[in-house]
Specification:
This protein is α+β, with helices and mostly antiparallel strands and about 210 residues long.
Length: about 210
């Protein structure tokens, strides 16, 4: 889910003590990212854009479409500042380090000064729609159980920050944040591409 964010350019280590000179302050370089076309603005938090530097591509040798990268801008809730975006990424990467099947994220600064989250584009079908694609009901039940367990684990580790959909007023969850893909053995697995509720991350909504 590459941009370079912060690079410290440090002076070389002095050859000898007699020739030491004051070390200059670190020079911080910042890469500014362009936005491509918007392709998904149905969510309540923000809009997804294509990353023109990392487009979706066709692998003709393997005969498949491979995802590039996308950028999510939390423009519908005003969380486009650096601190909010970096906090989202920090929590996500901490969960990934613990083994959670989440999409990799990174914080990026946009041309207009806002900040967004760049992540890998996962090519597949969301778990809420797989019934329409003829997937074995037993496999669907297993994947839904795995998704529910993961959301509970995220809530447990983050004090209720999991992004849940379709469960208002006690209704069933539709798991549209999970993308179903093939694993290395030809079976099916899930990736959570939107694991955290940004409104809760930035305290616009109470944690569940």
């Amino acid at each position: 889910l590459a941009a370079v964010f912060l690079l410290n350019m440090l002076a070389p280590w002095p050859a000898s003590a007699s020739k030491q000179t004051p070390t200059p302050q670190a020079v911080i370089k910042e890469t500014v990212v362009k936005l491509g076309n918007a392709f998904n603005d149905e969510g309540s938090e923000g809009t997804l854009y294509r990353d023109p530097d990392n487009p979706t591509r066709i692998n003709r040798e393997l005969g498949r479409i491979e995802g590039g990268k996308v950028i999510k801008v939390f423009d519908k809730m005003g969380a486009t500042d650096e601190a909010s975006v970096r906090e989202m990424v920090r929590i996500n990467e901490q969960l990934r380090a613990g083994g959670a099947p989440l999409v990799k994220m990174e914080a990026v600064k946009l041309e207009d000064g806002r900040w967004g989250v760049r992540m890998e584009e996962i090519i597949g079908t969301n778990l809420g729609d797989v019934r329409d694609h003829g997937l074995d009901p037993a496999v669907i039940r297993r994947l839904e159980a795995e998704a529910a367990k993961l959301l509970n684990e995220i809530d447990s580790k983050t004090n209720g920050l999991a992004d849940r959909r379709g469960n208002l007023h006690g209704g069933p969850e539709d798991f549209r944040n999970f993308i179903v893909v093939r694993d290395a053995d030809g079976g099916f697995k899930i990736n959570n591409v939107d694991p955290l509720n940004m409104k809760k991350v930035v305290k616009l909504e109470p944690n569940s």
